[in-house]
Design brief:
This protein has 291 residues and is mainly α. Helices cover 81% and strands 0% of the residues. It has twelve helices and no strands. Helix 3 runs parallel beside helix 6 (96-126). The radius of gyration is 18 Å and the shape is globular.
């Protein structure tokens, strides 16, 4: 099977099916709860847009990364969460409704924040800014891949709650299988890149991933947010949309080197997120947020 067929057709289709399955476990009350108590949303957005770019900048400077790789790391930091964040959060007993809300809002915000952060990064590291158009098409893809299937799943649950309940376990098993397939696909696609560049950017990308997930988990707990919301935020800001970053590096900036941090990070995050999800899922499940 060709890697392009796998990554461009089959995996998005499988992710869409899983998003539909996650929708079977959600109701409008889950989203109303998020809207009634917006602290978790604000914390997640603040960490994503106000803290992570500074963390990426600090790592780029600390590791004295070459300018193009440093810009690539900043591009990754400016990218919103990916669809797989919702799956990992589901497996780790996180607040999936919060994940979906953050993904949707972050994807809209990145129409403004991503071009701004990327232009400032180009100015800082390369001495010349460049107009970067807002990634409107990618935001539409997020809606098609996440929001639409979840909405369909929620509609099915409203009219057929028994069927939705019976599908809970199969969807969880399918989620694990698709994540395993994603890891295999990521390894196959990024293997040569990983071998060639890991010594240069591997440690920086790993630390950025661990810092992202660590802050995403610790900061909400420090602010006394419920543990499921902390898990959701950790997954949301720790699992970046590497595909978006790679697309912009290659097709907008025309610079393959700038895509390297996203490629390496996209591989590493599957393993760190899996470890975090395993650890989180073995701890007692907290009650849904009420404050």
């Amino acid at each position: 099977m060709e890697a392009t067929l796998l990554t461009n057709v089959l995996l998005p289709l499988a992710l869409g099916v899983i998003m539909l399955g996650l929708g079977l476990g959600l109701t409008l009350d889950d989203f109303r709860r998020v809207a009634r108590y917006p602290r978790a949303v604000l914390v997640g957005l603040l960490l994503q847009t106000g803290v992570l770019p500074w963390a990426a900048l600090g790592l780029a400077l600390a590791f004295r990364m070459p300018p193009e790789l440093a810009v690539g790391l900043m591009l990754l930091a400016a990218s919103p969460g990916g669809a797989t964040a919702n799956i990992y959060s589901h497996l780790a007993h996180g607040d999936v409704a919060l994940n979906i809300t953050l993904t949707a809002i972050n994807s809209l915000l990145c129409l403004v924040t991503l071009p701004l952060i990327l232009n400032l990064s180009l100015e800082f590291f390369l001495g010349a800014g460049q107009y970067v158009p807002p990634p409107v098409s990618k935001v539409v893809e997020v809606a098609a891949l996440i929001v639409l299937p979840v909405g369909i799943g929620m509609t099915v649950r409203a009219f057929a709650p028994g069927f939705a309940a019976r599908m809970a376990k199969p969807i969880r098993i399918l989620s694990v299988l698709v994540l395993a397939l994603l890891i295999v696909a990521a390894v196959a696609q990024a293997w040569e890149t990983l071998l060639a560049w890991f010594a240069v950017v591997g440690l920086a990308c790993l630390l950025f991933n661990l810092v992202s997930m660590g802050l995403g988990y610790a900061a909400p707990l420090a602010l006394r947010l419920p543990r499921p919301q902390a898990i959701a935020i950790a997954m949301e800001i720790g699992i970046h949309n590497g595909t978006l970053a790679i697309f912009i590096a290659l097709n907008v900036l025309g610079n393959a080197t700038m895509s390297v941090p996203a490629a390496v990070y996209s591989l590493l995050m599957f393993f760190t997120a899996a470890g975090f999800a395993w650890w989180a899922s073995r701890r007692p499940v907290a009650a849904p947020a009420t404050a």
